[in-house]
Amino acid sequence: MALQILPSFLAADLGHLADELRRAEASGADAIHLDIMDPTFVPNMSFGPSVVDFCRRTCPGFYRNVHLMMNRPDLYLDAFAQAGAQTIQIHVEADCDLHTELRRIRARGLRNAIVLNPETPVARLEPYLGEVDEILVMTVHPGFGGQRFIADCLPKLAYLRRRLPTIDLMVDGGVDAETAPLAARAGANQLVAGSYLFRQPDMAAAVAGLRRDLAACAGQEAR
Question: Do 3 and 35 touch, CB atoms closer than 8 A?
Answer without folding.
Answer: no
